[in-house]
Amino acid sequence: MTTREGSLEPPKRHPLDWENPDFYDEPKLFAEMERVFDICHGCRRCVNLCTAFPRLFDLIDEGSTGELDGVEKQKFWEVADRCYLCDMCFMTKCPYVPPHPWDIDFPHLMLRAKAVKHKKGDIRLRDKLLSSTDAMGKLASIPVVAQTVNAMNKAPAARKLMDNMLGIHAERKLPEYDSRRFRPNARINSSHEVRDGARTSGKVAIYATCYINYNEPGIGHDLVKILDHNEIPVHLVEKEACCGMPKLELGDLQAVKELKTRNIPPLAKLAKEGYAILTAVPSCTLMYKQELPLMFPDDGDVKAVAESMFDPFEYLMLRNRDGLLKTDFTQPLGNVSYHIPCHLRVQNVGQKTREMLQMIPGTKVNVVERCSGHDGTWGVKTEHFAESMKIGKPVFRQMAASSPDYISSDCAIAARHIEQGMGDTKAQKQHPLTLMRIAYGLE
After folding, report:
1. What pairing do the DSSP bridges indicate for beta strands 276-278 and 204-206?
2. What is the CATH number of the domain that holds 405?
């Protein structure tokens, strides 16, 4: 069998050879980009996924020959800059991914291009700031500082200045910072009896993530309340840094390694003690499940963490299959428009959030399975804001179609983007974990 469509084999990713000097050799990079782009040009199946492929095809169609040889290689960077590493082309569209002999991994080729660009020092201050989520969060969530930052992020004059000086679009609604961070305020209950199931560990460790710690700690508190209600002992990871996904998307792979060195030892200790590790941000979960194991394929601790890492709803639905999840829901949610983010879809765990929401009596779930267009820091940038809104337009329309009581996404940033794109709506924006807490009748 030579294509995905005719093969029973799943897509298989190769380890990322990022420490090989050839990885950063620009002529060799361009040669591989030329090989892959020519195959993409002959296929064009991914044209509707993002703006990277349309830009590639426009460059070819507008070139001197109508073929790839008519495109200046320096313009290849325009394609790489539009890839935000959602992985959807690899996982759902491309028929030529390995084990096909053409061996196409478009996202990791674009990651290589970003790494070469970063190595050259061709990175803006804005991108360094946006990808330093821990440092920015610790500073911006300090009391008084948080109020000042939040006020500036809503002030038209300040936003215009940020647009002109930094390239952060003036119209992009930014997440607020919360001075009551999650970690020091989490009410953890580890006293419940451990009840292991056939598929699940009966004890959970929470890796909070930068976003939960500094922006929306309520999501983390709701996760704790849900686990406590289900009598699952909880442990907060002793110490943590950013998972590394923002630096990965920037191409700063050395920074990813440094963050991995800080994060993996305490996580591996918990994994080896039998904890299921939960993170409420799909990109962070994916980082530990997929990207770090591909960057460090021979690291046993990285593998142990990957095997113990779960999306919260993946874990809860497995708990339900083990007959150990409480379903004593007391509050119907009405009509919920639920968006599945790309970094959750590519984990291949199924639609677990949808399954759980549909278990709640008096709840109807409208599922939207399409990229929202925000994509980490990409949709914040001035040069990509309009494109991010264009990509999200079908999602905005589908989310609004059922006149929902709630709009929700496992990715809190995507949910904010969708809320902005929907405009005037009576629907409340709530994370799925918050909806679960409401359905349980928990305060």
Report:
1. parallel
2. 3.40.50
CA proximity to 15, closest of 307, 304, 297, 247: 297
CA-wise closest residue to 433 among 284, 196, 226, 234: 226
**Do 41 and 112 fall within a single domain?**
yes
Per-residue pLDDT of the chain (443 residues; tens, 9 = 90+): 344 454 567 788 999 999 999 999 999 999 999 999 999 999 999 988 889 999 999 999 999 899 999 999 999 999 999 999 998 899 888 999 999 999 999 999 999 999 999 999 988 999 999 999 999 999 999 999 999 999 999 999 999 999 999 999 999 999 999 999 999 999 999 999 999 999 999 999 999 999 999 999 999 999 999 999 999 999 999 889 999 999 999 999 999 999 999 999 999 999 999 999 999 999 999 999 999 999 999 999 999 999 999 999 999 999 999 999 999 999 999 999 999 999 999 999 999 999 999 999 999 999 999 999 998 889 999 999 999 999 999 999 999 999 999 999 999 999 999 999 999 889 999 999 999 999 999 99
The number of distinct structural domains making up the chain is 4
Q: What is the C-alpha to C-alpha distance for residues 392 and 397, in angstroms, rounded to an integer?
A: 9
**176 inside domain:** no
Residue 175 lies in a domain: no
Domain membership of residue 407 as a residue range: 329-440
Return phi, psi of residue 122, to 5°. Answer: -90, 60
Tokens of 152: 């500036």
Q: Is the pTM of this model over 0.90?
A: yes
Angle between the 253-272 and 300-308 helix axes, to the nearest 10 degrees?
A: 70
Q: Is 204 within 8 Å of 275 (Cβ atoms)?
A: yes
| Range list of H helices, 44-186 | 52-61, 76-81, 88, 106-119, 125-131, 133-140, 145-152, 156-166, 182-185
Residue 406 backbone dihedrals phi, psi, to 5 degrees: -135, 145
Q: Cβ distance 324 to 201 under 8 Å?
A: no
Kindly list the strands in the beta sheet with 363-368, ordered across the sheet, starting from the edge strand earlier in the chain. Answer: 363-368, 334-339, 406-409, 428-429
Give the Å distances, CA to CA, from 236 to 183, 190, 276, 277, 286: 8, 10, 12, 10, 19
Q: Please report, for residues 51, 78, 306, 313, 376, the alpha-carbon distance to residue 282 in angstroms, rounded to integers and kept in the order given.
A: 22, 27, 13, 11, 11
The answer to whether residue 172 sits within a structural domain is no
